């Protein structure tokens, strides 16, 4: 087992997993395990963002589609079930439609943005806690921050549920609030937070685009509440990373669900049946997706 060393470099994905299940967090970031089979929804989202990044670099639709297609075509389908492979192939087929919806609905302006796909990192120092007790560097990647100080995140979505349910989901999520926190820390607080929601086609329904504003995130009350919650969460994470890296398992949170709309937890078999060599062979070392987290191990 590789030891995770200070300063701990923590992003929104880690915090989500920590709040969901500490044992899943331990297996992912302390044991550094990742399924050998591709996580198809994650890989599709990355591919789509490759195309959007080309758009904001001034590229045309053909170049954006080429970038997205090149990424998804490199995904190794080994280990996917028949159902998962069929789903992945379906997703790859509608990538052109989803990118076309983005191009058709978003107006390109060459000087519209201050940041595009910007990786960031900053030391977290809770004013009530000595820095040595919360030795964490927060980091992430911002999709887009405009010159009008609008923080915009691009999401691909199934379109299930109402527009208000979608809004509430992302108001509760740590990601956008964390990006807002960072921009406030560096002296450029957003005046608006929004999601560019690209909804996947389904049966007879075509792909479509929605611009969803989340002004609540920029309110002083929301920001102060998030800052306090962030301090408590990070203190808890650092305590475990400092003291319990050799302990296993870590406790599962009471609200954790081992099965989601995307299927069972990646680690469900090991948690239920034990970590035999046969089970471990289904995993590989976790690969880091953020350059700013490089050197953590």
Write the layout of secondary structure elements.
Elements: E1 8-10, H1 12-20, H2 22-30, E2 33-35, H3 40-56, H4 61-73, H5 82-105, E3 113-124, E4 136-146, E5 150-157, H6 163-172, H7 174-185, E6 192-199, E7 208-213, H8 220-243, E8 259-260, E9 263-264, H9 268-273, H10 277-280, E10 283-285
Parallel strand pairs: 1-4, 5-6
Antiparallel strand pairs: 2-10, 3-4, 4-5, 6-7, 8-9
Helix pairs in contact: 1-2, 3-4, 3-5, 4-5
The CATH architecture category equals Alpha-Beta Complex
Overall outline: globular
Classify the secondary structure makeup into a structural class: alpha+beta
Give the helix level as a range of percent.
40-55%
Architecture overview:
The protein is of the alpha+beta class. The protein has a single domain (8-291), classed as Lambda Exonuclease, Chain A (Alpha-Beta Complex), CATH 3.90.320. The chain contains ten helices and ten strands. The protein has helices spanning 12-20, 22-30, 40-56, 61-73, 82-105, 163-172, 174-185, 220-243, 268-273, 277-280; strands spanning 8-10, 33-35, 113-124, 136-146, 150-157, 192-199, 208-213, 259-260, 263-264, 283-285. Helix 3 runs antiparallel to helix 4 (61-73) and helix 4 (61-73) packs antiparallel against helix 5. The mean pLDDT is 90.
């Amino acid at each position: 087992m590789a030891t995770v060393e200070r300063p701990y470099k923590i992003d929104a994905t880690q915090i989500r997993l920590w709040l969901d299940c500490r044992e899943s967090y331990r297996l992912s970031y302390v044991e550094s395990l990742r399924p050998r089979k591709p996580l198809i929804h994650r890989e599709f989202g990355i591919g789509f963002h490759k195309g959007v990044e080309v758009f904001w670099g001034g590229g045309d639709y053909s170049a954006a589609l080429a970038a997205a297609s090149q990424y998804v075509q490199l995904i190794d389908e080994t280990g996917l079930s028949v159902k998962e492979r069929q789903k992945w192939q379906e997703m790859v087929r509608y990538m052109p439609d989803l990118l076309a919806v983005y191009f058709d609905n978003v107006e390109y302006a060459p000087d519209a943005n201050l940041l595009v796909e910007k990786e960031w990192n900053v030391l977290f120092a809770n004013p009530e806690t000595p820095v040595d007790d919360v030795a964490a560097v927060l980091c992430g990647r911002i999709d887009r921050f405009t010159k009008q100080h609008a923080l915009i995140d691009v999401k691909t979505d199934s379109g299930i549920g109402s527009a208000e349910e979608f809004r509430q989901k992302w108001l509760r999520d740590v990601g956008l609030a964390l990006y807002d926190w960072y921009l406030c820390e560096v002296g450029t607080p957003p005046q608006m937070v929004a999601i560019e929601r690209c909804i996947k086609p389904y049966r007879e329904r075509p792909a479509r685009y929605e611009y969803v504003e989340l002004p609540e995130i920029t309110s002083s009350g929301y920001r102060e509440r998030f800052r306090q919650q962030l301090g408590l969460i990070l203190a808890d994470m650092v305590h475990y990373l400092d003291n319990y890296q050799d302990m296993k398992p870590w406790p599962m949170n009471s609200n954790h669900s081992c099965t989601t709309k995307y299927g069972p937890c990646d680690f469900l078999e090991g948690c239920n049946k034990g970590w035999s060599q046969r089970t471990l062979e289904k995993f590989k070392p976790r690969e880091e997706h953020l350059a700013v987290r490089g050197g953590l191990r």
